[in-house]
Amino acid sequence: MNGPVSLAQPQPASVLPSQFEALCPPPQLLPGENINHYHALQGAIFSDLEPQSAVEWLLAIDIAELSWEMQRYRVLRHRVLNTYRQKAIEMTLRRVDVAGIAPDFRDIAEVYTFNNALDWQLDASAALDIEARLRSFGFDQHAISMEVYVQAREILILFESLLNGAQLRRLMLLKEVQNLRRPNMARLAHRGPKASKCLE
Predict the structure, then answer these.
(1) What b-and-e string marks burial along 95-126, b requiring 16 or more CB atoms within 10 Å of the CB?
(2) How far apart are CA 147 and CA 88, in angstroms?
(3) Digits of tens for pLDDT over the chain (200 positions)?
(4) 70 Cβ contact list (under 8 Å, min separation 6)
(5) 38-40-41-46 Cα dihedral, nearest 10 degrees
(6) What is the pLDDT of residue 195?
(7) Which residue from 155, 169, 178 is spatially nearest to 82, judged by alpha carbons?
(8) Among 22, 42, 104, 112, which one has the highest count of C-beta atoms within 10 angstroms of its own C-beta?
(9) Three-state secondary structure along the chain?
(10) C-alpha–C-alpha distance, residues 43 and 47, integer Å
């Protein structure tokens, strides 16, 4: 007989040396974020930077954290755009269905438009019908996407600011790593000729 199967994925071992583990706090993940993906990104950055000293490890940890934040911002931005897509469908339907309606019936038409946009989000077959109807009036997916960006422009500016800020801080930390290593590289270059003379 087969025994119970464990679906839990093993946690990847940290590549952080044990003497530096205190420098790296546990990750603060949001619901839906994957700890294995976090460790994979962190491990790739540690492997690429190959930190040697405690200060280099601190910088590498911060670079990994900023890289994760940037991925988080991109995912959240995409989800925000999907949320605004329903609003864009509603606005486009309003242009098609409410235009030319007598003022006395406008409120009822607005309710129907809202419900149709909700159906678009919740019912796949209704979404196909609504999109086909909008296409017949000249509103294809590109037109709807343009409406999405119009509706979400303020929140997109916020995400752009967050991404740019994280990228700038990451670049500064990478330069700091290079600055820390420059004296060591100079010392090795200076010792090179002497070491070769000793070998002769």
Answers:
(1) ebbeeeeeeeeeeebeeebeebbeebeeeeee
(2) 5
(3) 444 433 344 444 457 778 778 888 889 999 999 999 999 999 999 999 999 899 999 999 999 999 999 999 999 999 999 999 999 999 999 888 887 787 887 888 888 888 989 899 899 999 999 999 999 999 999 999 999 999 999 999 999 999 999 999 999 999 999 999 887 666 666 665 554 444 44
(4) 163, 166, 167, 170
(5) 120
(6) 46
(7) 155
(8) 42
(9) CCCCCCCCCCCCCCCCCHHHHHHCCCCCCCCCCCHHHHHHHHHHHHHHHCCCCHHHHHHHHHHHHHHHHHHHHHHHHHHHHHHHHHHHHHHHHHHHHCCCCCHHHHHHHHHHHHHHHHHHHHCHHHHHHHHHHHHHCCCCHHHHHHHHHHHCHHHHHHHHHHHHHHHHHHHHHHHHHHHHHHHHHHHHHHHHHHHHHHHC
(10) 6
Single-letter amino acid, residue 65:
E
The residue type found at 115 is N
Q: Tokens 């009822």 label which residue?
A: 108
